Amino acid sequence: MSTFSLFNSGDYSVPGSTSWYLADLGEFRGKQELYTRQSPQRLKALREHALIESAVSSNRMEGVEVDPQRVRNVLISPKPLFRDRDEEEVRGYREALSLIYENTEELLITEETICRLHRLTRGEIWDAGSYKSKDGDIIERYPDGRERVRFRTVPALETPKYMTKLVSNWVSCLDERRVHPLIAIAAFNLDFLCIHPFRDGNGRVSRLLLLLQSQKLSYEVGRYISLERLVEQNKESYYETLEHSSQGWHENKHDPWPYINFILFILKTAYREFADRVGDLQAPRGSKTEMVLNALQRLPKEFTVAQLEQASPGVSREMVRRVLGDQKGKIVECIGRGPGAKWIKKG
């Protein structure tokens, strides 16, 4: 009852689309050292921005949000004073990211590491770092009040056994080279989410593990480009492929490739963005200005200042407005007046 069981049996074939992703990612990884030799100032700005974006995006996907005006204080201040539990959890995610960035080599993929990451992201809540004590299925709730069971997770009593097996499968899969390491990362991610070992916070821990495992295998793009932000931007595909690939998981009759391809797509998108950011060797703009301009590129053609501010976590509202003012008539135009005024990208 796992994706790794499929690989262990040898009864599978790698789809052509997956092979193309692996080839592209291999090429990007080969250029990785070249990219990281570029402007130290630009790389430092990318690392700082990726940390902020990752903490904000990963939590926002779970309904945990921080006022944009509070983001920098919550994530950067040495000893922030939290206004609510959401701020505490976002800060905890930032601490987990720092742990990964600074200790990649020392952090082994073990149950202890997984529980440690969960403990950081959940703060002082009573079951932080502990597996679930009650069964809990994944429920989808509709605006009209209806709900349905999207997936039945592993029962609480069996969770420790499944998690021990998951970690063991990860180690043996890499040691015996049964599949490409990137496929193993995505398979681990899928199986972890199907087990759903914690009462809450599983999605956030899965994204931290994706970052950690990628870095341990020298795919280090997550240091510079937020994988969590890319997942959030593609969350419809994330939920769709996860649901598709989890169907039949308990019976070993699931199709893991849609979700595996989604994870590979996220990594490839991150590398392409990284190449775009560092490939241009012209003198870099101020880091905050560049953050706002990059966020602007990701917004739809018509947007508001509030949307741009949300897409530029850690940048003050005054700075966002200043950059917009500088670009007015060049790449953007303003329609209307007041806080709700619409802006339109030209071209």
What key attributes describe this structure?
347 residues; Arc Repressor Mutant, subunit A; Fic-like fold; 15 helices; 3-stranded antiparallel sheet; mainly alpha; 59% helix
What is this structure's SSE topology?
Blueprint: H1 3-9, H2 16-35, H3 40-60, H4 71-76, H5 85-102, H6 111-122, E1 138-141, E2 147-151, H7 159-176, H8 181-195, H9 202-216, H10 227-233, H11 235-246, H12 257-279, H13 287-298, E3 302-304, H14 305-310, H15 317-327, E4 332-335, E5 342-345
Antiparallel strand pairs: 1-2, 3-5, 4-5
Shape: globular
Mean pLDDT: 90
Write out the CATH superfamily name of the largest domain.
Fido-like domain
Number of helices: 15
